[in-house]
Specification:
6 strands, 2 domains, alpha/beta, single chain, 11% strand, Helicase, Ruva Protein, domain 3, 197 residues, four-stranded parallel sheet, Dna Topoisomerase Vi A Subunit, Chain: A, domain 2
């Protein structure tokens, strides 16, 4: 039995989301057919409004205006610490921890010559000027531990002024983790990031 084209088109749109297969998309769309018209209108309006979403001109995070709330926060600006991340989701994860009180810089990915991602494809153009403008004394590289992440960290270290301290976040064994169940890369990173007691 063939579903109406309106449903199939909506299923096609939903299945473009990461982690959503055709089966899940179909279930979600069929559930939405039970919604009242105002709920469907509200849903479609909220999706449509994503077109007008802006990015902060300084850090690259989502924003309603020219600058995001983090970049407008004078306490964070005066902290002198800049955390460089790959994606907006990394910012959100760090913010959720409430352990960081500085500013962010979202690159939009990592260097990957095999996929044609070079320095010009990422948000490096205003990095040096932001470091000078906000008197940044410490940069924290919060990039994922991968070959591409490591290469990007090396590149960043080269373009940051020498008087700025550069750290990379620690990686390794999670709290409550058991060595026997961890992969070799995690154990290797944990040994690299060991600390003196």
């Amino acid at each position: 039995m063939e579903l109406p084209e309106k449903i199939l088109n909506t299923v096609e749109s939903f299945s473009k989301l990461p982690g959503v297969g055709r089966k899940t998309a179909t279930r979600q769309v069929l559930q939405m057919t039970k919604w009242e018209a105002p709920a469907l209108d509200s849903f479609s309006r909220s999706v449509s409004e994503l077109q007008s979403l802006k990015r902060c001109e300084d850090c690259g995070f989502f924003s309603e205006s020219k600058l995001c709330s983090i970049c407008l926060d004078q306490d964070r600006a005066s902290a002198g610490v800049l955390c460089i991340v790959e994606e907006v989701t990394d910012c959100m994860a760090i913010e959720k921890s409430q352990a960081f009180k500085g500013m962010y810089h979202v690159l939009g990915g990592v260097l990957n010559p095999m996929l044609g991602v070079g320095p010009g494809s990422l948000r490096f153009e205003n990095l040096s000027s932001r470091i000078k403008k906000h008197n940044i004394t410490e940069v924290i590289l919060a990039l994922n531990p991968s070959v591409e992440g490591d290469a990007t960290c090396s590149y960043i270290k080269e373009v940051i002024p020498e008087n700025v301290k550069v750290d990379r976040i620690g990686f390794g064994i999670p709290i409550g983790g058991s060595l026997e169940y961890l992969d070799s890369m995690t154990i290797s990173k944990a040994l690299e990031n060991k600390k003196l007691l």
